[in-house]
Structures are given as C-alpha cells and as structure tokens.
Design brief:
The protein is α/β, with parallel strands linked by helices. It has one domain: Rossmann fold (3-Layer(aba) Sandwich). The protein is built from 10 helices and 12 strands. The chain has helices spanning about 15-35, 70-75, 90-100, 110-120, 145-155, 165-170, 180-190, 195-200, 220-235, 265-280; strands spanning about 10, 45-50, 55-60, 65, 80-85, 105-110, 130-135, 155-165, 200-205, 215-220, 245-250, 255-260. The strands form 3 sheets. It has a 7-stranded mixed beta sheet with strand order 6-5-2-7-8-12-11, with helices on both faces. A 3-stranded mixed beta sheet has the order 1-3-4. Helix 1 (about 15-35) runs antiparallel to helix 10. The longest helix is centred in the N-terminal third of the chain and has 23 residues, at about 15-35. The protein is globular. The N and C termini lie far apart (about 50 Å).
C-alpha cells in the first residue's frame, strides 16, 4: 500500500490572516446573537466547505495560526453543530485529529459541491428553526453556482465567499479572449452560473485601432466584482450583499474578494463594521 504523504501546512500572508480574523469576529457575534434567541429557539450550524487542515503557518512570523475551523471550535457560546469538508485526505485527517474530542463535529472527505447539497444544507432547513453560517473559501474556481443559489434560496444560510479573481485573470479573463481554452472558460461558467460573465468581463474599447474598428478591452477587477455582487442579490436572491473586501498579496495585487451575503440587514451591518475596522488597518 502506498504511504500517504505527510501534510505540509499552508503558509499564509497578512491578508489571509485578516480574512481569518474577519470570519472569527463575525462567527462569534453570530453565535452570541443566535444562542440568545428564545422565541423561537434556534439551532445554529457552522459549515466550512474548503476547511483545509485547521491550522496554517504565518509567513510573517513562521508560527502556527489557527484556521477558520479551529477558530470556530473556540467560539463561545458554541455553535450547535460543525461541518468541515475538504478534498485532501491529509487535511481531513488533521481536521479529525483537531476535533476528535468533540461530538458536535462532522468531517467529510470529498468534493464539497455535492456534499453541501446532499448532506449538509438539508440539516439547516428554515422551517425546522435551523440557521447556518457557511464559509465558501475555495482554492480557485472550485465552487459551483448551484451551491450559492441553494444557500440563498434556503433563507436560513449566510455565506462568506472567496471570489478568486487571481485564478480568473490567470486562466480565463485574458486580454486576448480567443486564446482561452474551453475548459478554463467552463470553470468560470460553473462558478458564475451562466455565460453572462463574457459580456461583463469585456467592453468595447474607447480607442479605435489602425483599421478604424474598436477592439474589446477587459473590465477592471472592481467592475467584475461589482457585477458578481449584484448577481448574488438579483440572481441568487440574497437580500443583503455588502461591498466585498479586496484581499491582496505582498505586491498589493488583488488576489480575491471576500463577500458576505445574508437575508438579515443586522447581519450585513455587523459585517460592514468588521470590514471597516480591517480597512482602517490597511485593508482595501
């Protein structure tokens, strides 16, 4: 039997540490508010669809940093259930080790798209007084729109969502769109939900070419991000989607946008305050 490779923890930078703080701060507020509700009493659930190993290494300090699943396990008052999903069996083993003393945790090995729809979201039905906070933090274009749409349609699920603009630009939104492979374009279509991204990502150039015509030019990252924000509202159906936070790398280039989407205005207000706090620290 082949020996399983040892797990190497992901190294994360400043912006990823900010993301973890944002999610931790909101998860604490969310659990506190829902735990206090008694008329009716609500059963609240924490879901991490791309959970990782549960811990990371800091690029700045070299030290261990708790990942979002580990942070969630220490939230007080606790969530009633935790569901952690990852495709990598070594990360799953790490999650199982971290949570082995807990009876309120389920860890899943596999593709989160069918697992969420088949096994996890049905545990958060609105009519059963269930509510859920779902973290959708894919490594790239690995999430399917049907998951986002289902979360919105349930009325009981709030999401944090990583919109991986670096992956999108690197593999799909080229200046020469004719050179993009059909396979890469299909990845964005699955994430976006349809092919309307093609009309949003490009616009007629304001300058004519030597031949007098006007070639298309790429829309900016912020323009694409705003179109996706509106899509979360008007197509998926979330009632409240604040302007996302742009998360950057060490060169100050945007790597992804962190969205929050909910049906509750109070929830959106809390997240906007948390976003504002971190923007003042140097976030954008």
């Amino acid at each position: 039997m082949p020996r399983r490779r040892e797990l190497e923890f992901d190294e994360i930078g400043y912006w990823s540490e900010i993301k973890l703080e944002i999610i931790r701060d909101y998860a604490a507020a969310y659990s506190r508010i829902l735990s206090a509700q008694s008329a009716p009493s609500l059963h609240h659930i924490y879901i991490d669809a791309f959970a990782g190993a549960g811990v990371h290494l800091s690029k700045a300090s070299g030290g261990i940093i708790a990942g979002s699943p580990t942070n969630a396990l220490f939230v007080m008052p606790p969530f009633r259930e935790y569901h952690f999903i990852d495709l990598d069996e070594r990360r799953v083993a790490s999650l199982e080790e971290i949570s082995r003393a807990r009876s309120d945790v389920e860890v899943y090995h596999g593709d989160c798209n069918p697992i969420l729809l088949r096994d996890v979201f049905p545990r958060a039905r609105y009519k059963e007084y269930k509510r859920a906070l779902c973290i959708l933090d894919p490594y790239g274009l690995d999430l399917e729109w049907r998951v986002i749409a289902e979360a919105a349609g349930m009325g009981s699920v709030e999401i944090f969502l990583n919109f991986p603009v670096a992956d999108i630009n690197r593999n799909v939104l080229w200046r020469n769109r004719e050179g993009v492979s059909a396979e890469q374009a299909a990845r964005l279509t699955r994430f976006w939900g349809d092919e309307s991204w093609r009309d949003i990502a490009y616009r007629p150039s304001s300058q004519a070419t030597l031949w007098g015509d006007r070639a298309d030019e790429k829309s900016t990252n912020d323009e694409v991000a705003e179109a996706f924000r509106l899509r979360l509202k008007t197509v998926a159906g979330f009632s409240h989607v604040p302007v996302p936070m742009a998360m950057r790398n060490s060169n100050n280039a945007i790597v992804y946008y962190l969205y929050f989407a909910s049906h509750k205005p109070v929830a959106a207000g809390i997240v906007q305050e948390i976003f504002a706090k971190h923007r003042e620290r140097g976030g954008s």
